[in-house]
Amino acid sequence: MRAEGTPSAATRGATGVRVAPAAAARPAGDRPPTSMSTRRHRAFYMFASPWIIGFLLLTIVPMVYALWLSLTTYDGISPHWRFIGLANYRELFADPVTWDALGRAGLFALTSVPLSIVAGLGLAVLINRPLRARALFRTLLYLPAVVPPVGAGLAFKSLFDQNSGAANGVLNIFGIDALGWLADPYARYVLLMTVLWAAGNVMIISLAGLQDVPRELHEAARIDGAGAWRTFRSVTVPLLSPVLLFQTVTGVIASVQTIMPLLLAAEPTTGGVTAIPQSNYMYMMHVFAEYFALGRYGYASALLWVLFVLILVVTGLIFRFTSGVVFYNVDPEAKK
Amino acid sequence: MRTGRLVLYTVLVVVTGLFLGPFGWLVLTGLKTSAETAAAPVHWLPADFQWHNFADAFHLIDFLGYARNSLIIAFLYATLVTLSSAWVGYGFARLDAPGKKTLFGVLLGSMMLPQMITLLPTYLIFARLGMVDTYWPWVLWGLAAAPYLVFLFRQFFAGLPRELEEAAIVDGCGYATIFWRIFLPQSWPVLSASFVIAFTWTWGDYIAPQLLLSTDRSTLAVAVMSTYVTSAGTPVTHLQAAASVMYVVPILLIFLVAQRGFVAGMSTSGLK
């Protein structure tokens, strides 16, 4: 396929302006470099347009629509919905359920993100040593991260079943009574375990980071008499800090939105709303409950927008507070 | 030194065992009788391996039908999003225009945008447009490119030498031609990594098909989760486990086959 209708600079130079009426209007051949670059500009936008249009239609429009809904009483059925200004926001801030759900989501992020980063980094460090069967270990440890959530959810459900689950089976061997893992207060620990199970994701990205750490730096540290732990802390971690920051930010965003394991752990017939253990009733679950169980689209949209703003603020704060700690490789030539 | 190695291997073997445990347990559960999956204390191994559970799970629901639906949307989305992301990634890697820097910032930022937050309003809009219960949402999502994959392709294309397209430009080829004829054929490793990643996302996705598709058009993820119930509504655990093994295994196989490219694809995106 040739670029339609746009004669190239070479053709225009050789055959004159007659081929392209649009070009004839301009003084032909006068400013070839400029028309080359406008062509490049136009081409850039041609290439970027699927994403730009998609972003506008599938991200910005829904967000604005949700913002509008959040100012109404819309419930999807009643034709008598109306504009109520900030009333939804006032209601949600006054509702202790919102704050409890938010608190649980925050606590979950504060525990699950550091745990999975430490676990993933730890595995990456182990795997990064000269090992036999390194590729095998790497593959097997990463495997849980590709198990679809539905499979993972069912696996953990049967693993922690109160009667026939393996977890209670192990406790039984040690003479400990069976625990109700999937109910309060243990349900949150099971949830944490499902997150840790997928630490292979962090492992893979950390591993790539580790392999970029220049050998000489480790050797220099060793010559200076630094032990393994000291080298890890003072050389490896600072060099990995951009990767760790990326993991932290995406981890926090993902954990706050956690919904699938919660829905999966609930009874399918109740829309996943009432059968969920209290300790796992987190913010996103609350949004789902308002959306689908109660059909309060306006109110739920307000909840979504509050969460969106909170995520922006938290992400901003993370970047702010790590700016002095995160070490970017200032000498890109060093790698080559 | 020797003992250090021994400890290292022991730790790795134990951790790997723990990581494989839940999946192994799921397989065992799928091989038990209904009574065994409910009995206390635990039956570690089934008294008789109930291999027919897999056939039963297959026939109890329209397993093939749901699998076909899953395949269609995963294939549709993965193909479209891989091509559109490569297309957009080429633009960001090899062309420039005023505003490109800002746009790239927005693109990277949008990777951090909470997806669930747009999904619910998107659902309402699709419902209004009559696109609920069709596969159009996946087509649209596919055509719109995915920031993560765009970034992957950009990194790859940016690393290719300038000389690659110079002759073509002198010959007067359009950028679209250059993209199709020169850059795309060079990018097989990224294309396959992107396809596998996108396919896995869609195959594993539960929320979007649950929201957007009716029961018989829905995917295996939804079916495995919600259709293995008795008429009283209690889940049939052993068949559900067998079905979810059959649902998970294709993804594991794809991952194992494509492992190298997949891992390379994941790791180049570490945002260093």
TrEMBL record, chain A:
Matching InterPro entries: ABC_transporter_permease, MetI-like, MetI-like_sf
Localization of this protein: Cell membrane
Keyword Hydrolase annotated: no
Transmembrane segments: 44-68, 105-127, 139-160, 190-210, 239-260, 305-330
Matching Gene3D superfamilies: MetI-like
Membrane-topology annotation of the record: Multi-pass membrane protein
CDD domains noted in UniProt: TM_PBP2
Signal peptide range in chain numbering: none
Region (Disordered): 1-36
SUPFAM superfamilies (UniProt xref): MetI-like
UniProt superkingdom: Bacteria
ABC transmembrane type-1 domain residues: 102-318
Pfam families: BPD_transp_1
Keyword set includes Zinc: no
PROSITE patterns: ABC_TM1
Keywords: Cell membrane, Membrane, Transmembrane, Transmembrane helix, Transport
Ranges of biased composition (kind: Low complexity): 12-34
PANTHER family named in the record: ABC TRANSPORTER PERMEASE PROTEIN, ABC TRANSPORTER PERMEASE PROTEIN YESP-RELATED
Similarity comment text for this entry: Belongs to the binding-protein-dependent transport system permease family.
Protein name: Sugar ABC transporter permease
